[in-house]
Amino acid sequence: MEQESDQRFVLTQVSAEAWAIHDLHYPDGDHRRIVCRIYEDIPADVEVLWLRDLPLAPRYPSVDDVLESVRRFQDASRATRPIPIPHRPPPSLRRRDRG
């Protein structure tokens, strides 16, 4: 699989029937770098072992489909701007004299 330098997630083949998706935002040796492991299950299907808590499917037609799904999920999670939260001082605890 070809690695694109501007992509955050890359697909790496680790054996004849296994791949991994790496998150390049983390350095080598950091356990967070590996997003998932992918195993060829039958000739037309792959099984995914997610190493992160992602709401994505456990099976895909191909390894490229897994990579595309991870990229789409990441893009969707950054699609909206943060919602601004108004910052106000806490209410005053002083009581006014009614005199």
Structure, explained:
There is one protein chain. The protein is of the alpha+beta class and 99 residues long. The chain has a domain at 9-74. Helix content is 15%, strand content 30%. It has one helix at residues 63-77, and strands spanning 9-15, 18-23, 34-42, 45-50, 59-60. The relative contact order is 0.15.
- Report the count of strand segments: 5
- How helical, in percent, are the residues? 10-25%
First and last CA, distance: 81 Å
Low-pLDDT stretches are 1-5
Count of helix runs = 1
Record the strand order, biggest sheet.
1-2-3-4-5
Radius of gyration: 22 Å
Shape, per Cα inertia axes: elongated
Structural class: alpha+beta
What is the residue-mean pLDDT, rounded to a whole number? 85
What proportion of the residues form beta strands (DSSP E)? 25-35%
How do the SSEs run, as a string of H and E?
Answer: EEEEEH
- Largest sheet, if any? 5 strands, antiparallel
List its salient traits.
99 residues, alpha+beta, five-stranded antiparallel β-sheet, 1 helix, 15% helix, 30% strand, elongated, disordered N terminus
Write the layout of secondary structure elements.
Blueprint: E1 9-15, E2 18-23, E3 34-42, E4 45-50, E5 59-60, H1 63-77
Give a concise summary.
It comes from Microbacterium luteolum (Aureobacterium luteolum). The protein is α+β, with helices and mostly antiparallel strands.
